[in-house]
Each structure stands twice: as structure tokens, then as C-alpha cells.
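Schema walk-through. Below, the input block comes first and the output block second. Nothing else is stored per chain. Lengths vary across the set, and this one has 384 residues.
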Amino acid sequence: MLEDGRLFEGRSCGAPGTTTGEVCFNTAMTGYSEVLTDPSYHGQILTLTTAEVGVYGVSPEDFESDRIQVSGFIVKRMSPRGSSWRAKKELRSWLIENGVVAVEGLDTRALTRHLRGRGAMKGVLTTNIDLSQAELLTLARSSHGVDDQDFTAAVTRPSPETWYALDEPDPWYDLARNHLSAWPSKLNIVLYDFGTKSNIARQLTARGCDVTLVPASTTADTVLEMNPHGVLLSNGPGDPSACGAIVDEIRKLIGNVPLGGICLGHQLLALACGARTSKLPFGHRGSNHPVRILESGKVLITSQNHGFTVRRDSVERAGLELTHVSLNDGSVEGFRHPSKRVMSVQFHPESSPGPHDAHFDFFNSFLELVDPESAEMISGAKKN
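--- output ---
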């Protein structure tokens, strides 16, 4: 039941129970394991628009965090059996083991069209058929949703954790970097965990960086005492405007250390620089969103998962330079500061799931911002 009274019915394919949250949809055709474990979905009931899910089972190597993060799960059809040599269990049993309320057989196309037309809204998902429609509507309307919610404390790690550079970088990076197996300088990066996806840290360790992940509540002074070469602000759930204490700490870092942001980190960095954010009608969630790099005109096909955006009219007023825009709706997809070594993107350059177009555009650019001398050396090597 949605908060506007629209009711959808299907069959339970997860754990029994009742759950509430903001109802959203993702248009990716694969990657359900990564999506379900993405902390950015905390507090949301997720609908997948693809016709069938679960066909390749569940493999822990695909997880983006240590648990399922969604409040509820809606699909058109769940495959009764997963067929893959990598699979350790079936999707249905994984959902039940984790207590996730899920439904199949629901008209996901009608639900998605309804949300696109009316905008994101709160809802309730339940296996309790004894609840009346009036009771369901009360539950939907009284749920917390994501507006004005700071969920970072619910998804961040409790203490710092270090991921060390890979001894043998992935051949994919060697090929893309003209056989430069790792960044020439050994860099120490602090990654703020606002609900980070694991592949963000993997992208950096594959480039020869040591990455220290720190809790969302870590102060700027603590980070600066660690003497990092650069600081990256991760993705995460909730409303950026509700994270005032975090924004205050980020503001203290600006100008003192190179800064990058991804998704929620991008929005928080924009607020710290003086820009503004607002909520999108129904969010950007999927793996085929086109983004144009303004400087080169190149178009990236990107993975995205966000319900809020940086207001385009506030970017220039905050003294920032717009670098990336969405080709779907013209919204802000990236910015930089002209003098304070700050850059940020709204999309997910680490993919997982999604295309790899943005891997090198963002992560190499961030390391160039952190270590410009090595960047010049790489540029010279490529010319030669």
C-alpha cells in the first residue's frame, strides 16, 4: 500500500512480516546481489523493473556490504532456482534467512509508472492479509520515509579499518593505464564511510593505495592527524540536508586536504561548499544513465542510485565549476572547485552493478588531484 492509497497485491517470496519505507525502483537488468547489499538503500522498499530475478543465485563475492540493506523487496518474478557455478545459495532462501519481506507476482510495471507519475512516496509491504486497507494506509503514511533523515549512523562501520594496496593490481587496470600497474606514488587515502560500497575501496587498492575507512562521525581534526594524501566521501542513504554535523566537519577539511565525493558524499561536499540540495521526483536508480563530461563532450553510461540532487542554480553561486550533467534531465552529476582541490560526482564510478565507463574518469582524476606530480609523469609516459 502506497501513502496515496494505491494497493498492489502479489505472493510472498521472502520472510513473513510487515515493513515500511520509501518505495523506489531500479531499472538495472542484473546485479541484484550488489543492489540489495548497497547501504544507500537503507530505509527503502526496492522494486526491480526487470522481468525475472534470481536466475544466477547469490554469491558473497558480489556483496557491497556485510548484509542486505533494503527494508523490503518487490519483483515481477523470482526464479525458483539459481543457475551459476559461483552461486552459494538461492535468492529466495537468502532473503528469508535475512528476514527481508519480499513479494513477487505484483505488477511492477504499473507500480513503476505510478511512482514516475506521482513521485516517490512512502509505503508498507506486508504478508499479514488480516490487515484492513485502512490499517495499511495508516502504516504507510506514518512511516519515516527518507526525507529529513540522517541514516549514516545506521550503516557506517563502528571503528576505522584499513584496506591495503593489492600486491598484484588487477590486469584490467594495467590495460586501461597503458601498463602502469599502479599509481607511481604510494598514496594513503581516508574514505569516509557514510554507507560505502566495498567496490569504492577496491578501486583504490587496485591502484596501489592504502585506504583507511573511518566512521561517519569522525572529526576533521582526527582525519587531518592521520596525514592522508587525500580524503574521499562515500555514498550513503538518507537526506543530505539532515546531516548538518557531518557537513560542518567536511567544511573544515576544504582547503586543507584534497577532497573527492561520490553520491551522498558529493551532496554533502556541495553543502559544505555553500551549494544547496533538493529531492528528485522519483530518483535516479539503474545502470544505464548517460552523463556528459562538459570539458571533453564525452558521454559516460553510469550506474546511479540517489533520490536527492545538488541544485544546478546553486553550483555557480557557491564558486564551483560544473563538470558533469545528466543527459536525461540536466541535473548536476559533477563539480570541482577551481582552487581548493575539490572534485565530486553524483553517479557511482565504482559501478557494482553497472558499466565500467566511469572507473578511470573518476578514480584516476581523483588520484591526479591528490598527486599532481605523478599525474604529470603519467601524462608524459603516455605521450612517449
